């Protein structure tokens, strides 16, 4: 199958079938050696969709919403390639017209005319002529207006602008070192010898940052469990939970098990861990992690964490609440998130989080630790829930890095947008 067909079919699944871009790219990678151009085009179109559609709406007499979905995708891919990848030649137009013939033959003239008109008058057509500032920013950064308004409300305009500027930045990959098997320095030396560019994390003690992570999961060191790929803020959560051996630990929303498996490493297999998730299909991922790392004493369960489990009452020394969230902090890796969420969804998630936190509180022993984390930004899921927890009389906030809660931002910390706060039951 040619590249354009793979790109257009992949984007169709992301935009219209709610699939994740990473899953689509993994599927393509299993059939293709080099997918760098396909990756760039798929991410590029998702990250610029609102801007690309703005340009198309200047050129098309038919409204965007009325266009055939595949035809719209062909135009988006074409304009992205011409404008952002600087492929200003008519060969690319011919290729896309050929794809159009297969998808919707009657539209071939239309696609041809739009793409050629864009090449002829690119400078003018690519300008954004919008006066309203929010609408302008929304098109410029392809970020729905509700997110811009929500960030302004939660923080301020300066924060929002910095966030938008960093929205499409690709960051490094981070890994956590299994220091029961190898020291961070020794692993660093081995990976550097293999050609990786490695540096220390500024956020977590166990993490290393890798700027050229290609084929990292195929190395012998990964297979031998010397390290795991995990975002450094997520590693920091487990470091802050700091579980002790011979304790009872509950990870309420655990799949795919990245944090559970680090917790298992931190307690040397010497604690009772329950790793729970509501999604039955994701449980096998937790198991894969446990098996690769040869971890013991982890029981996997499958219940809705907002329901009360009477037998868990005051049973746990640690409850990790790494809860389902809107994910606005991880749009560099999952750019489609911006189109799949809305304000109503954020509010629903925030109330689900409160219900789960209520349960977690009940399951904690006196002296037990509750850690709440999200990979999102915005007040409803972060600050409000921190305040909610402070109102429980038997919870005492424990500072992390001298702060009552931590909120990392992509633009200041060069990492995921991520929130964490820690409490002890007194
Ligand atoms: C942020 S992810 C957890 C990531 C995981 N802690 C890790 O580090 O690998 C949130 C998880 O919550 C699960 N989830 C969503 N609603 C839930 C509920 N009501 N009860 C339990 N799990 C839930 C989702 O299936 C998802 O796997």
Describe the structure.
By secondary structure, this protein is of the alpha/beta class. The chain folds into three domains: 123 residues, NusB-like (N-utilizing Substance Protein B Homolog, Chain A, Orthogonal Bundle); 34 residues, no CATH class; 194 residues, 3-Layer(aba) Sandwich (Rossmann fold). The protein is built from 19 helices and twelve strands. The strands form two sheets. Strands 5, 6, 7, 8, 9, 10, 11 and 12 form an eight-stranded mixed beta sheet that branches. Strands 2-3-1-4 form a four-stranded antiparallel beta sheet, covered by helices on one side. Strand 6, helix 15 and strand 7 form a beta-alpha-beta unit. Helix 4 packs parallel to helix 6. The longest helix is centred in the N-terminal third of the chain and has 24 residues. It is globular and about 70 Å long. The model has no long low-confidence stretch (mean pLDDT 95). It binds S-adenosylmethionine. The site of S-adenosylmethionine has 17 residues, from helix 14.
In short:
The protein is α/β, with parallel strands linked by helices.
């Amino acid at each position: 199958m040619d590249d354009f067909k793979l790109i257009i079919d992949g984007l169709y699944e992301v935009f219209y079938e709610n699939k994740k871009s990473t899953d689509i790219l993994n599927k393509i990678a299993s059939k293709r050696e080099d997918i760098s151009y396909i990756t760039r085009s798929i991410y590029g179109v998702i990250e610029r969709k609102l801007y690309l559609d703005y340009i198309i709406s200047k050129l098309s007499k038919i409204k965007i919403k009325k266009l055939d979905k595949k035809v719209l995708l062909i135009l988006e891919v074409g304009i992205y390639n011409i404008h952002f990848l600087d492929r200003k030649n008519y060969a690319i137009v011919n290729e896309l017209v050929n794809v159009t013939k297969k998808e919707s033959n009657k539209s071939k003239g239309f696609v041809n005319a739009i793409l050629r008109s864009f090449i002829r008058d690119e400078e003018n057509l690519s300008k954004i002529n919008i006066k309203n500032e929010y609408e302008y920013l929304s098109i410029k950064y392809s970020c729905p207006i509700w997110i811009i308004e929500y960030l302004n409300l939660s923080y301020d305009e300066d924060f929002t602008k910095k966030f938008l500027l960093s929205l499409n930045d690709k960051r490094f990959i981070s890994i956590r070192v299994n220091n029961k098997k190898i020291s961070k320095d020794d692993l660093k030396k081995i990976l550097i010898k293999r050609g990786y560019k490695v540096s220390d994390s500024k956020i977590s003690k166990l993490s290393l940052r890798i700027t050229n992570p290609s084929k990292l999961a195929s190395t012998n060191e990964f297979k031998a469990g010397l390290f795991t790929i995990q975002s450094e803020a997520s590693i920091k959560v487990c470091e802050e939970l700091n579980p002790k051996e011979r304790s009872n630990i509950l990870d309420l929303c655990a799949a795919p098990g990245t944090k559970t498996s680090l917790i298992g490493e931190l307690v040397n297999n010497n604690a009772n861990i329950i790793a729970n998730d509501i999604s039955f299909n994701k449980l096998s991922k937790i198991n894969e992690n446990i098996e690769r790392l040869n971890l013991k004493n982890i029981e996997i369960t499958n219940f809705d964490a907002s329901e009360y489990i009477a037998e868990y009452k005051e049973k746990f020394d640690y409850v990790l609440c790494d809860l389902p969230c809107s994910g606005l902090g991880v749009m560099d890796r999952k750019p489609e998130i911006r189109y799949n969420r809305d304000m109503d969804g954020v509010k629903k998630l925030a109330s689900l989080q409160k219900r789960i936190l209520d349960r977690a509180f009940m399951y904690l022993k006196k002296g037990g630790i509750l850690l709440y984390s999200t990979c999102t930004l915005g007040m409803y899921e972060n600050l409000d829930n921190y305040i909610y927890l402070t109102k429980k009389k038997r919870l005492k906030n424990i500072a992390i890095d001298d702060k009552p809660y931590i909120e990392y931002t992509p633009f200041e910390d060069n990492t995921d947008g991520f929130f964490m706060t820690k409490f002890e039951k007194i």
